[in-house]
């Protein structure tokens, strides 16, 4: 009885050990030893993609009477229960019919797993467009250059033929045309000043001299003296001057006007 | 023309010629200054003479006063001069115990205020007030100044340190401001020749070199009645409406000129008319003409205008601006 109990304990322990041996966490390799597979030699199925959850490697193999005894290194990439025979094949490509080699790959992380946020590809901003920027800058530079060249530049306008301002003689003539009878005091004053200006203009040697000196010179001049004095007498003496005398006084100025024409 | 007026004008012109002749015996040249002094005298307008020292200002005024038989006083203005030094003051007579009035040098016909801009403003103010009102109050008594009363002030335009420039309002009280110039070469030669003939003055057992002042004789050009007649004759000189228009035109131009901050006051127009009348009489006319206006414009108007900052910064002078105004008026 004692022997039976001991045997049962050993068997139970063996099974328990076997169950525990084929268990590993994700990414941690495990070596499963003494796996006997009858028949011809087996090799791992080559991995052709990254989706295969188990990576297998035959660590050692030893031939037995019926087949081979293998040590298999396995590494689980995703949690789950797997049958390692699905990741093995016969080296001679014959069918592999054997008992399952279970492997539990568990995760040590909390469930549900916090997976990295999935990236959504977006088009980055401000990348590219250098050509457009260059063209725009070029256009702005040209506009600036044109503005500098032409801003506030006087436009070349066609030459207008302006009527020259009336000369002193013309002004005097215009006043004389009003008729001596109609000349009021304002006009008389204007007329006399214009006559003084007329004589100063007529004698180039008086240019730049003070006006009082010029007037004294003109009053003593043979040509202008009599005429200036007669105008002074007419306008300033307070004596009654006849119409004939006024006409005689102004006649030389009218004559000058005709000569100029 | 009325015969009486004509006779009066002729007499006055003779009187004026006599004055000019007597003054010219002492002072060489300076005809324009003599003319301006006579204008001031005949119009009772005061005159300011601007000029360098040594241009015979004092001699001229002295000779003029002597020629027209007028009292003459000269006051040298200095910084420490007091108003009472000019106007006079009340003094206590210790024996009688009463105050009596001591009249200052202002009680004269011709007062030469030499270098008026050297005195403090209160002295200038006292003098200019007396010029305007022709009376002086000393203590509680008001004294009327003698007639005619004429102030001839001088100032040196170059030396400005330690001077008090007369403000525009006080300058306006002077009818004329004449700027003296140096004599011509011929005139200067004549001055030197005359100076050579001065000789010495022996008196009191000693001798002293004679000066031009010793040459001023006692001869007079006429009596005080002649002066009054001449002043009356000035009032009879005809001023036409056209001349008034000319005057107003020139005055107006000073008020609207872009280079001038202050133009001429109406007092300038009045001064031009008055002075032109006197000038006409001096030149033997019984009516004024534009020449009088243009000849007197600088002396009457230049001290009454003030250039603005832009004109000063541009290097323009009052004389230039005024000349351009006169030139513009005949165009």
Description:
The complex is a heterodimer of chains A (261) and B (331). Chain A is an alpha+beta fold. Among the domains of chain A are: 23-106, Immunoglobulin-like; 168-260, no CATH class. In chain A, 43% of the residues lie in helices and 18% in strands. Chain A contains seven helices and eight strands, in the order αββββββββαααααα. Chain A has helices at residues 2-21, 130-150, 168-177, 185-202, 211-219, 222-236, 243-260, and strands spanning 23-25, 29-38, 42-44, 54-63, 67-76, 80-83, 88-90, 102-106. In chain A, the strands form three sheets. In chain A, strands 1-8-6 form a three-stranded mixed β-sheet. A three-stranded antiparallel β-sheet of chain A has the order 2-5-4, with no helix packed on it. Chain A has a two-stranded antiparallel sheet with strand order 3-7. Chain A is rod-shaped. The mean pLDDT of chain A is 80. Chain B is an alpha/beta fold and 331 residues long. Chain B has two domains: 1-199 and 206-216 and 223-236, 3-Layer(aba) Sandwich (Rossmann fold); 238-331, Magnesium chelatase subunit I, C-Terminal domain (Helicase, Ruva Protein, domain 3, Orthogonal Bundle). Helices cover 47% and strands 17% of the residues of chain B. Chain B has 13 helices and 13 strands. Classes of the chains: A alpha+beta (261), B alpha/beta (331). Chains A and B meet through α4, α5 and α6 of A and α9, α11 and α13 of B.
Major sheet: arrangement of strands of chain A: 1-8-6
Helix content of chain A: 40-55%
The figure for the number of domains of chain B is: 2
Return residue spans of chain A where pLDDT drops below 50 for at least 5 consecutive residues: none
Q: Report the helical percentage of chain B.
A: 40-55%
Structural class of chain A: alpha+beta
Q: What does the average pLDDT of chain B come to?
A: 86
CA-CA gap between termini of chain B: 33 Å
| Assembly state of the chains shown | heterodimer
**Beta-strand content estimate of chain B:** 15-25%
Rg of chain A, Å, rounded: 65 Å
